[in-house]
């Protein structure tokens, strides 16, 4: 299984071969450990979730992924307090890691509830983003067919062209590509309408496709991918969901919503229709060819954000886009 993950700096593709509901590491961390940066960061995050009364650090560790005296001491102090060892090292599947996962569950529960509440707040914007963007594309189709007139607007075409670049296409080719974009936006809107699971009552307010990352990944969000996109359950991760990570508590609301929309385009792609990937992110999307833009998630996400939020509000949350968006496309 593959996952497409938003790290905040870039979108990355990883191979994922299962997992567990607890946060895990690939190799040992601490004194004498391999200390891979992602593993060190995972342990730092776990230790920061543990209060001093349970053996956690009095002063929070920098979650930078670098091993040093403070992190080594925090591991050893935790081991001695919890009586899980005295070697100052956390091993995969070892007693120290198991105990680190057990203690902060109550704090994680509160953080997870807050994240899902933030998703609920974003839902009206997500719905409007997909609807307004689809109407803009339909307006662009009318403009290509009929030209500018009483019931058509060049602005709709200019917005679509800014993000998908039809400059080298004939009118018939442009109409075909606009039709594909419209279908993609219809899929996005339909996915947002998935009702809650009636048997459990989980994920109210129509957010059934969003859930909390169970793996402790240092991403903002990710979507598991399989070659067939069937909703097969696998331990720890399921392609039926978009996973929201703890790092998502940091972005401002408009950026938070944008990231959810970005992942939604991965979610609705069945890997046979367009195969929406991550060629690049933010301001770099304007350097792509038309073919690449049609298959790049952030072109869709920035386009829908622009259409719904407007130019200035979009630039407030993503200022690096300013040189690329004309003022008249407000």
TrEMBL record:
Give one Pfam family, short name only: PG_binding_1
In this chain the Peptidoglycan binding-like domain maps to: 37-92
**By its UniProt entry, which InterPro entries does this protein fall under?**
MetalloPept_cat_dom_sf (IPR024079), Peptidoglycan-bd-like (IPR002477), PGBD-like_sf (IPR036365), PGBDSf (IPR036366)
Q: What sections of the protein cross the membrane?
A: none
Any idea what this protein is called? Peptidoglycan binding domain protein
């Amino acid at each position: 299984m593959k996952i497409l993950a938003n790290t905040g700096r870039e979108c990355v593709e990883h191979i994922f071969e299962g997992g567990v509901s607890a946060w895990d590491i690939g190799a040992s961390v601490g004194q004498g450990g391999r200390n891979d940066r992602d593993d060190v960061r995972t342990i730092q995050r776990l230790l920061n979730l543990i209060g001093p009364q349970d053996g956690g650090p009095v002063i929070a560790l920098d979650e930078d992924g670098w091993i040093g005296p403070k992190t080594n001491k925090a591991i050893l102090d935790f081991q001695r307090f919890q009586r899980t060892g005295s070697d100052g090292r956390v091993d995969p599947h070892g007693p120290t890691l198991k105990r680190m996962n057990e203690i902060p569950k109550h704090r994680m529960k509160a953080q997870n509830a807050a994240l899902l509440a933030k998703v609920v707040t974003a839902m009206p914007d997500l719905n409007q983003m997909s609807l307004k963007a689809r109407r803009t594309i339909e307006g662009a189709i009318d403009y290509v067919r009929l030209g500018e007139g009483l019931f058509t607007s060049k602005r709709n075409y200019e917005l679509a062209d800014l993000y998908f670049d039809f400059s080298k296409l004939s009118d018939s080719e442009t109409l075909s590509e606009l039709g594909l974009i419209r279908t993609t936006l219809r899929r996005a809107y339909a996915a947002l309408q998935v009702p809650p699971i009636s048997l459990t009552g989980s994920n109210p307010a129509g957010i059934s496709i969003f859930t909390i990352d169970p793996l402790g990944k240092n991403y903002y969000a990710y979507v598991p991918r399989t070659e067939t996109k069937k909703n097969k359950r696998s331990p720890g991760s399921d392609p039926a969901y978009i996973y929201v990570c703890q790092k998502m508590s940091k972005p401002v609301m408009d950026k938070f919503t944008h990231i959810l929309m970005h992942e939604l385009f991965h979610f609705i792609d069945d890997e046979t229709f367009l195969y929406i990937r991550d060629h690049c992110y933010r301001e770099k999307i304007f350097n792509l060819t038309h073919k690449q833009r049609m298959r790049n998630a952030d072109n869709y996400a920035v386009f829908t954000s622009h259409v719904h939020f407007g130019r200035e509000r979009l630039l407030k949350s993503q200022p690096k886009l300013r040189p690329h968006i004309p003022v008249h496309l407000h």
